[in-house]
Amino acid sequence: MRRVLRAGFAFAIALAAALAAHAEDQPAAKPDPFAAIRFLVGDWAGSAAGEPGEGTVERSYAFVLGDRFLHERSVSFYPAQPGKPEDERHEQESFFSYDRARARIVFRQFHTEGFVNTYALDPSASAPEKLVFVSEDFENLDDAWRARETYELVSPDEFVETFELAPPGKPFAVYSRSRLKREGRAPGSGSDPDHLACDRLRKLDPVYARGHDPTGVACAFAARKQAAHVQALQILAARNPQR
Asked: CATH 2.40.128.20: which residues of the chain?
């Protein structure tokens, strides 16, 4: 009986080693072009303050059209306050896309006032926990204007959005700032411990800030190794039903 157990254990170790070696030979996972903004997926709510006054904001993000676009829906409400006798409600919808030719995230905002703003991610001003989008052109607004959207990640469940405007020939000035907190967890948004651990590794990796993701490959490999280990144990259990 001991010989059988030893043989089964040796077989399981050999099988696990073979599966791990096979995992190492697999091609590295393709980089996720939306990795920098994937944390946005889900529902958010918070406060807003700026030129329109003080108010509240509700927002949601979800991937659409075969996961090729990230769709944003946002509603801001500013109640009547000193200097502004009427309530103000602002709605916008946006689409984030990935421009393969430029290897850059682009997003377009559609506002209830009829404006359409097109932004592109500014890699030189961005960091793993700070994304800066600078306007490229507008519809129904003079292109001499400039706009800037900055997203600062406070935690996996909170971020601050700063919207700045620059009239022709003048510097940027803050128009509004919103602080949003996640409402519940979105499936696949990174709530699992393994994902959070890998995310911490990425933020500590200086190469990550330059657009590469070696830790992501390491995390994927670790997941394959764990799966191989589980499969080996299952085979061992099947070969030794009396154990």
From this structure: 38-182
